[in-house]
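*** Backbone structure tokens ***
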Amino acid sequence: MSGDMGRDQRIARAVATVGYVGLLRPAPGTWGSLAALPLGWLAMQGGPLVFTVLTALILPLGYWATAAATRGQADHDPSEIVIDEVLGQWIALLPLVWGAANAGVAVERLWPGWIAALLLFRLFDIWKPGPVGWMDRRTDAWGVMLDDAIAGGMAAICVVALAALAHL
């Protein structure tokens, strides 16, 4: 990304890279997913509804930041953009915040679910099965955001299934 950026593009880059976490190497996507965990925990302190609304707001924010940060670039999905990983990771965490609220326990007590959500989201994000791959093949900011949203949804379904198995 260019060194000669306007203010809006600098803000977009900061958002797209999640405070420049996406510049960490190796595996910036994994760093972005790891950064999403404490950020998610903070957002969860407002309760499941607040976390769900904030998760939904990441999609338009991430779209804007990705489109602005990559404007004029040949690569529509550079590895340093990790706001999409935050979106996908938070979607994978949705069953935890709602499950903890329904059980009346602190969300960190569901720590096995946090590990499952992280590992499953990364698996689906890297593997790109079915609809994840279809979205990833788009050459625009929607593709950048939606492949991770779908991977997060797949991970969330698996987290629910694993929790059901654990509580048989």
Notes: The mean pLDDT is 95. Helices lie at 7-16, 28-44, 48-70, 83-103, 111-127, 130-136, 141-166. Residues 93 and 114 are 7 Å apart (CA to CA). The two ends are 50 Å apart (CA to CA).
